[in-house]
Design brief:
This protein is mostly beta strands. It has one domain. Helix content is 9%, strand content 31%. The chain contains two helices and nine strands. Strands 1, 2, 3, 4, 5, 6, 7, 8 and 9 form a nine-stranded antiparallel beta sheet that branches. The longest helix has 11 residues.
Amino acid sequence: MELKYPDNWTVTETTDNGLRIESPEFSYQTIDKGDVTGYFRIYIRKSARSSDGKYIGRGVALQPSEKLVYSQPTISQRKETSLTLFGLDTTDHFAYFLLTPNFQLNTGETMGPNYGKEIEAYIIGGGYSTKTLTDDLATYKVSKDGLTQKNSYKQAIEIIGSLKFQ
């Protein structure tokens, strides 16, 4: 796998063969914790862990899935995928995004806690996090208003769009 990311973002391999890609720290407003200092985190790993189900299983699509076109896919890679924005247990806020390549979800639909457990599946998600949220898919709930216009979100989507799978 290859990807492009801004120089001021950091990439770290996790102990479970995943990748964390994090923006520089900034302050943002959460739904239930007020102002926090954190970053936008992207998490990539092959096959979901059992612990991922407690987040993925509670995700509710905020809107219909969107098409994301890869900028320079390899010959064997699909040219586009589906990107779904999820709230945790509700559509009232944004909790994380997840690539859902074979699924086109509508508002209010879920993936269920067993999504992505196949060996060949990739879990690619992201959301607003902090150093205190140590679980890779743990994120803070933020307002969905203006979400897609925020610089950290736009950069995260560009990073995801740059993915090349060998």
